[in-house]
Amino acid sequence: MIDMDIAGIICLIIFVGTLLVILLGRLDETAVALFSLGLCALVLYTFNNIAFTAMLGSIYWDTVLFIAAMMIIISVLGSSGMFQYMALVLARWTRGEPRRLFMVLMGFVFVVSLVLQPLPTILIIGAFTAEVCNSLGIDFRPYLLSEAVVANSASIPSPIGSIPNMIVVSLTEMNIGLMFVTLFPLSLLLLGVTIWYFLRYYRQVFAQLPGAAASHLFDIEPRLMIRSRLDFFVSAIALAVLITGLVLVPTESVTVALVVAGGLLVISFQRAKVLLNQLSWNTVFFIVGLFGIVAALQVTGVSTDLVAAMTAVVGNNVFIAILVMIWLPGFVMSAFDTIPIAAFLAPMSVEFASLNRIVPISMVAGLNFSVYVIPFGDAPNMYLRDLAEKNRGPISWMDFTKAVTPLGLVHLAISTAYLFAVAALV
């Protein structure tokens, strides 16, 4: 037990140190994550005699494969001209006015996020957003950061809105009708706060007029963006299959994504190698590195010990239980992957459900906020940063944190007050 405690403390120090080094932005983040993964593996072997292969077994490889498959799908769809076509249609409809475009995109992301998980939502809409903004000569970074927040906060009321939601609903046998009725007004309130916040935070960007090329852009027929009619229709069918599969069988999202990605590569023939070479493998390996460090913390029992301590603190107080269910996953444990955190906390929320039915529902809110309160390592955030860098508008972790974390804390505070009020009425 002492050895495990020592290993856990060392791995926790490595984890915190890794986040700080990444935040400073002076070293390559993928290199730092993989090096830290190696250090954690060495610690586990030295103190607990745990082999590296055993630690790898705790990594959520299904999430890694899902990310890779979705990146392949986006790469193929982008090469067909589909995103350019959609971008031009939307740009013409909004006439390139930055604030109007922002409102339309946020509303679109909100609706889509009720049925799709944040990662596929961002993977599809992020590339589309970059195309729109580049076409109009507008800085796309405020749009991407806003979409990262809305995609997660909008998924709160939906039982299929995110993987953690599905885990909590299945493990707690939650009343999904009560969950939706309780959390949907909150998600609308947070959407309004998010739009207001980013319009003020980036007011100089939204005050700018579209680039000079925008006026000529509206004279171009969208169909001219299609590079190949066959590729375009195949891409449209693939996207429809992907969305349908993710909605109908959300628990098998990895299978759906792999089938669609593999099918698109097969019919790409010789272009498949080119498309694979264009993938951002550094993003995939960065996620593997961070997931590996989190796996080390799980193996050493750090996460479990924290949950046990919080259970003792709560006692029989409903409001403290709600506070813990929101802020524990939403802030204290927000640097961890939300999937294992949902699995860890679900049993505790079941115990607290006898106090008030709103307590387990509160945990759903906290889990969805966690991915942008401290944005390190979350897959949608990683993809958006990679997309921004590819489009020559890099977003550092420091910039990401400065823009998004204050809003995340505001969301946590608003949600706490809202759910306190609901619990008092139920």
Topology:
Layout: H1 2-24, H2 29-48, H3 52-56, H4 61-79, H5 82-94, H6 98-113, H7 118-136, H8 141-153, H9 163-172, H10 176-201, H11 203-206, H12 213-217, H13 229-248, H14 253-266, H15 271-277, H16 281-299, H17 302-314, H18 318-332, H19 338-352, H20 358-373, H21 379-390, H22 397-425
Helix pairs in contact: 1-2, 1-16, 2-16, 4-7, 4-13, 4-14, 4-16, 5-7, 6-7, 6-8, 7-8, 7-21, 8-10, 8-20, 8-21, 9-19, 9-20, 10-22, 13-14, 17-19, 18-19, 18-20, 18-22, 19-20, 20-22
Short description:
This protein is mostly helical and 426 residues long. The protein has 22 helices and no strands.
How would you characterize this protein structure?
78% of the residues lie in helices and 0% in strands. It has 426 residues and is mostly helical. It has one domain. Helix 8 (141-153) packs antiparallel against helix 21 (379-390), helix 18 (318-332) runs antiparallel to helix 19 (338-352) and helix 18 (318-332) packs antiparallel against helix 22 (397-425). It is globular and about 60 Å long.
Which structural traits does this protein have?
mainly alpha, 22 helices, globular
Kindly, what is the distance between the CA atoms of the first and last residues, rounded to a whole number of angstroms? 43 Å
**Beta-strand content estimate:** under 5%
The number of E-state strands comes to 0
Mean pLDDT: 80
The global form is globular
Number of domains: 1
- Percent range of helical residues: over 70%
